[in-house]
Amino acid sequence: MHKIILVSILTLFQINLFAQSNDLIRIIEDDKIGYINNYGKIVIKPNYTVGYDFSEGLASVREYDKYGFIDSEGKYVIEPKYDLAFNFYNGIAKVFLKGTPFFIDKNGKIVISKKYTSLEFVNKDLAIVSTASDKKGVLNLVSNNLVIDTIYSSITNFKNGVAIVTNKEISQNGNHLIHKPAVIDITGNLIVPFNKFIEINDYNDGIAKVYFKNTDSNDEIYGYIDDKGNLLFQEKYTGKYLLPDYFNDGIGKISIKKKLSETSYNYYDGYINKTGKIVLNDTINERLRDFSCGRAFILDSNRDYKIVDTNLNKIGNNTYKKISGNGFVNNYAIVSNDVKFGIIDINGNYIVNPKYDLINEIGVVNGYFYYGIENDEETTLWGVANINGITIIEPKLKEFDVEGFKNGILKTSIDDKLVYFNEKGEIIWKEIESKELKLKNLDIDFMNRGYFSAYSKPNKNDLGGYGTSRNIPKKIKNEKFPNKKISLIVHVDSKDTIFSNFNAYNVTLSNLTNKEINFSAQDSRLYMKVQAKDEDGIWKDIEYLPNSWCGNSYHTLTLERNNYWSFKTPIYSGGFKTKFRIELMITNRNENETEEKNIIVYSNEYEGSINPGQFWNRLEYYPNGIMDPYNE
Length: 632
Fold this sequence. Notes:
Elements: H1 9-14, E1 25-29, E2 32-36, E3 42-48, E4 50-51, E5 59-62, E6 67-70, E7 76-82, E8 84-85, E9 93-97, E10 100-104, E11 110-112, E12 116-121, E13 126-131, E14 136-140, E15 145-152, E16 154-155, E17 162-170, E18 177-185, E19 190-192, E20 199-200, E21 207-213, E22 220-226, E23 231-236, E24 241-242, E25 251-259, E26 265-273, E27 278-280, E28 287-288, E29 295-299, E30 305-309, E31 314-320, E32 322-323, E33 332-336, E34 341-345, E35 350-356, E36 358-359, E37 368-374, E38 380-386, E39 391-397, E40 399-400, E41 409-414, E42 417-422, E43 427-430, E44 448-449, E45 474-475, E46 486-498, E47 502-511, E48 517-522, E49 525-526, E50 528-533, E51 539-541, E52 543-544, E53 554-559, E54 563-570, E55 576-589, E56 596-602, E57 606-610
């Protein structure tokens, strides 16, 4: 199903690029963004199509087709002139003009060269930057000079002053790319050179797991290095046990092989320290949890969890039947007595008695926790209680901000409407539901995802791919289409709705040739997309076609002669007036099925308006689950 990201309750939860830094809180009324104070009073009226949270005293907003920055009084500090703009962090904001990124200060002055496409702060003075060719380096933001040249394919976050870098090389057989790892310090010095290890995992607890092969015996070796590059210990891989990917509190969880018979075996958990010594090897333990906050949970043969410290001494006398998440977070853990959930401290004492059906895995955040109940729709409704077990908000929240209360205010949704609570559990503001459905044009500043889907009977030439759609072919009767042609027509005099409440034009694709036409498709999606003319009069895509990694997504749709499909395309709205058309690509094979030829068909042109970001701004797509074959 096609999903479009719009300014809604969902995006108000998703677009949290930077933490809110003052008392103004973003709200939505009649699809417009405004801002209130902590008492629910509107300080800045909802006039903006897009608006981000305030950060460092300013907020990025789009009122018409351009982004600018407003202060807490709603006055423009930086005039709206950008196609896209993100909020300030450490005094720097990323903005775009014609798809080109710039980095500006609070005066609107460009402070970092436009040759960099991204910036990730190491600290307030240093940042990892990327070039247009996707090469990474480290820039000193004060001097605007490179501390580490842009020569690496990737640079991880620096931990304890070191980071893992990679360079891409072609494999010896030339079939694929190899990512060669190394370790550098904050000045760019190589701590671990390239070609020493085949793999280096990210640092955790001051050490990183490495993998290499013995040059003489070709044995596979696993080991761990510290942040100086010293090899702490290594083990030849024999399958006897599997070393951990990371350590916490100086201890890692391993899997130890246990022989069951001559032909079968399984693994059980154990613990190993940073010297490579196995410190717990006991088959009576059913399961071990990773250490955190100096504690770990061990499940014994009675299916009871107990708590141990890093010396593996038992803490307290209590045992638990279930553990939520991995264990302790911020010195608290969510546990169950097999009936209800409660919260314990690192000494195993209940600070919240086990009386809840469910407690959210985020645990205690700023003195509050979030408990849930299942409602009739088989979804979870959440309530809020403080660490003393006193209920602040009854379980009625469909969503809530997992960062908890900010400046004493919690962002939530109830019945898909935005609602803000204070720490007393009082509603200070809630979104008012419109009494009537308002149809509107689609006002966005990103490329829309392909949505022209159709159905036909499975093609006998398809080996496995097949898609479904309710858009079945229709027989041409009294409809007028160009004779002896494949015609793609946008009917600007015939309007409809799309994506629930957006205006749309009806579109038809007809076949009045003397034969059936085969169309390449991807999960029923035709290779159709809307284009528009840019300010130079050049046709450019404003929609994109995703690519599936699953071969079964690809198949053929057939439109028989004297038949047509109907579609809908949104009526876009923005500050830039232009012309539109729809492009359709048809992949045809010759009669011997040996060669392919792409034929491009265009619709009629029609007028409208868009926002500049639609020419280039392609949002990151998040798969809907493990069965979603799209990760573009």
